[in-house]
Amino acid sequence: MSNSSLPFSKNTIIDPRGYEVNKYGLVKNHQFGVNDKHFMFYDNSDNILYKNDNSIIRRHKSSQYTTSDTISFLGLKGFFKSLNLYAVSTTDLTHSYLHIFENEELKKINMSFKFTGFVNSFFKYNDEELLVGCSNGLYIARLNNRKIAQVAKGISVKNIIKTSDGQIWITTNKDGFFLLKDKKLIKMPLDQNSYLNSAHYIVDDQYGYYWISSNNGLFRVSKKQLLQYTTNKGLVFYYRFSKSDGLLTNEFNGGSMPDAYSLEDGEFVFPSIEGFVFFDPKNIKAYYPQRKNIYVERVRINDSDITYFKNNLVLENNYKYADVFIDIPYYSSSDNLIIEAKIKGEDVDWKQIEIKNERKYTISNLGPGNYILQLRVQISPEGSYEYRSISFEIKPLFYQTDLFKLCIALIFLLIVTVVIHTRTKFLRRRNRALKKTVNNISLELKESAQNLETVKNDMQKESEYQKKFVEAISHDITTPVKFIAMLSQQLAEVHDANLQKEYFDSIHQSSEELYNFTMHLKEYNDLHRTENIYEKEGYLINEVFKIKTKLFHEIAKSKKNCLVIEVEDETYCHINKNIMTCIIHNLIDNGVKYTSNGIINLLATNKEEEIMIEISDTGNGMSQELITYYNELYQMSDENDMIKFKNYGLGLHMVIHLIKKINAEIIFCENHPKGTSIKINITKN
């Protein structure tokens, strides 16, 4: 097993153990001892440097390499040389360090760089920059400011190589190999088996080829093809040399410094696990098939014996597969034999035939018809091909013939016609039924629309009612609440105990009556909605008078008014009691509100055909304008126009609305000598 070495003479090399060998074997043992096999360099004085544990051993040329001195470094991992610079990599098991030396004595460190991955290779890119390959990426280290920039991450760099044509190559562990151009990596294509995914080292010859070592063979590739790939992604053809070409092993070694090189006599040296491989690239031949020695004339159909054909091939309709053999008298490695095929009109791209024990193309999964099988074989390293074409026919089964397909088409057409005719009749019947259904639905929708319109109107009326109801509540409780507030204020201003007691009693009684009134708000709310205008059992109007007189007693007393119920006779009424209570409440409230130091008279008279209710006061009285307004408001026929709020308040408007609801009559007039009189006539029937 071998790794690093150095050219020692024009046709010999020397390794870290001191073995000087040529292509024939050992020439001399210089007895360097057992040392690390991965690092070995000449310094500027042609002394040989190699590694042993944490030390660099320097063998002196002046003593014919018999004497040496040692340079030790803590945590030494490797050392490198590029042009006039030397570098030593060390590690503290957390980081790796690259120390730069300008002197071959390796005593004074000029500068150091710290990396997170192990340093595997080192190359002086220009006067100001270094390329450093690590186990976790490729970096540029700048000498002027001692800063590090990452070129590529996620790749494990093995070697940084500059070939004699000036190209800089990067080889990696399982990430392929790259060309460095303008500080950017361009990934190169791999061979067909991807052996170059872990390429070791690259050396170029003077005949237009690169030689690349790997763990599975030595590859040769055209410089022109590989470099053109960087611009136009053209085809690249690798030729692989293996044990079948005379090598003792397919596994070459990598990761050493240096790894491979050329000697003065023109021979290349590559390390392998079986020793160093010497060869002269001009004497190594690559073999390709010759144009005239490519034959396609044998076929094996299913499991039958192989038969011969010429240009045309006929396959029966019961075939499963057919192996078409490509016969080429080619005895080199099959890895270098490239045969591609495609079926014209079926395949777009050429597909490479996998060559195992037999060189064949298998026809399968094709329907009946006429086809052309196109084959091409690479016959030169430049990518030239020799083409062959084979015509073949696959016979159809009876159900695959044109006549059978025509009959099926006619039967299908007949079936479609019958189906369409039947379907048309069915659709006509269904359309008539649908039309009838649609008409019925239209009528239902029309009725629904009318119902919705009715509901809409009811909703609008309900909304209007809610508004009126809230306003009615506010109107009916305003006077009692205002009175309670007034008494509370006066109570705070007086200090006489008897007067305070009188005020407390008034507040208590008014509050209790107001509470009783609020307890009947639900009944009050039903006034606008109720359709029950009449009651079976009658009630006395005077009872309503007494209830309302009690409610307004304290308020009237505070204004020095007197509420008088003029008793004529017992007057029974069958109008909804809640409606009558609301009407009387509003009229008494109106009289109390606008009268001071006066009398509010309440009178109910029972006549033969009607009941007359009169509520009069001796207050300021309505203006003639108001009397005319309310009388005309009652005479209006359209109920929707009845509520005209103007600036006159809501109470009397609600009274007029309820009067119309019970089909009664209301008259507003002056009271003599002063005040207002409001008369209500209710028909008994």
From TrEMBL:
- Domain Histidine kinase span(s) in chain numbering: 472-685
Reaction(s) catalysed by this chain, per the record, are: ATP + protein L-histidine = ADP + protein N-phospho-L-histidine
List the keywords (alphabetical): Coiled coil, Membrane, Phosphoprotein, Transmembrane, Transmembrane helix
Q: Would the keyword Phosphoprotein be found if you checked this record's keyword annotation?
A: yes
| Database matches in InterPro entries | HATPase_C_sf, HATPase_dom, His_kinase_dom, HisK_dim/P_dom, HisK_dim/P_sf, Ig-like_fold, WD40/YVTN_repeat-like_dom_sf
Instruction: Write down the SUPFAM superfamilies for this protein, in alphabetical order.
Output: ATPase domain of HSP90 chaperone/DNA topoisomerase II/histidine kinase (SSF55874), Calcium-dependent phosphotriesterase (SSF63829), Homodimeric domain of signal transducing histidine kinase (SSF47384)
Q: What class of enzyme is it?
A: transferase
Which domain of life does the UniProt lineage start with?
Bacteria
Q: What is its EC number?
A: 2.7.13.3
Record GO terms (molecular function): phosphorelay sensor kinase activity
Q: Which SMART domains match?
A: HATPase_c
| Transmembrane parts of this sequence | 403-422
Q: Report the Gene3D superfamilies cross-referenced here.
A: 1.10.287.130, Histidine kinase-like ATPase, C-terminal domain (3.30.565.10), Immunoglobulins (2.60.40.10), YVTN repeat-like/Quinoprotein amine dehydrogenase (2.130.10.10)
Which stretches are annotated as coiled coil?
431-462
What protein does this entry describe?
Answer: histidine kinase
